[in-house]
Specification:
Radius of gyration: 30 Å
Shape: flat
Number of helices: 2
Number of strands: 10
Distance between the termini: 32 Å
Structural class: mainly beta
Helix content: under 10%
Largest sheet: 8 strands, antiparallel
Length: 186
């Protein structure tokens, strides 16, 4: 399978269709509930409740730990006599808490899309406690060549803007028909 994925063929094809989609997350500053170990809770957070949970194990006795031992078994001492041994570990417990804190969270994602070479970003209206968050963009170029249709998706706006309808491109296509890379034909 790996060899089939690595093997590619060069195909000359022309741009048949283009699509783009741009998304912007809208964030709002609000109260959120989270959980973490007591010593990892950020300053200013309000602890709601805590329970004792196993946080780690240790070979040595620890504060707030419970000894847990496995089944006894006989270990060969090399003297012809066996020694009965038992492996034990210490399960260390700590406070795991639910807490509330103010933070920026995504409350909505606005999208703009089109089937042209003029991508634009959405222009959302924000309330006083909102801000723009992460931006994402996806560009899809559909090609036709040798009686086949090929699709290439990218986040490279510069490459997308070069994909004029009808323009000729060299595609590197794997054995499963997946387009690995594209470049304008000379």
């Amino acid at each position: 399978v790996a060899m089939l994925l690595l093997r590619t063929d060069d195909v000359t094809a022309s741009v048949a269709r283009v699509e783009w989609e741009r998304r912007i997350a809208i964030q709002e500053y609000t109260t959120v509930t989270r959980s973490d170990w007591r010593d990892e809770i950020p300053a200013g957070a309000e602890i709601q409740s805590c329970t004792q949970e196993q946080r780690s194990t240790s070979d040595q006795p620890q504060a707030n730990a419970t000894e847990v031992c496995g089944e006894e078994y006989v270990e060969d001492t090399g003297t012809g006599l066996g020694e009965v041994v038992q492996d034990c570990v210490y399960e260390v417990y700590d406070d795991y808490c639910d807490y509330t804190v103010m933070d920026w969270v995504v409350v909505e994602t606005v999208t703009d899309s089109g089937q042209n070479l003029q991508p634009s970003w959405p222009d959302p209206t924000l309330s006083g406690d909102q801000r723009l968050g992460q931006r994402e963009e996806t560009y899809t170029i559909n090609f036709r060549g040798d009686g086949e249709t090929y699709t290439y998706t990218t986040t490279d706006e510069r490459l997308f803007l070069m994909a004029e309808l009808g323009s000729s491109w060299e595609l590197s296509v794997n054995s499963f028909g997946g387009v690995q890379s594209i470049e304008p034909a000379n």
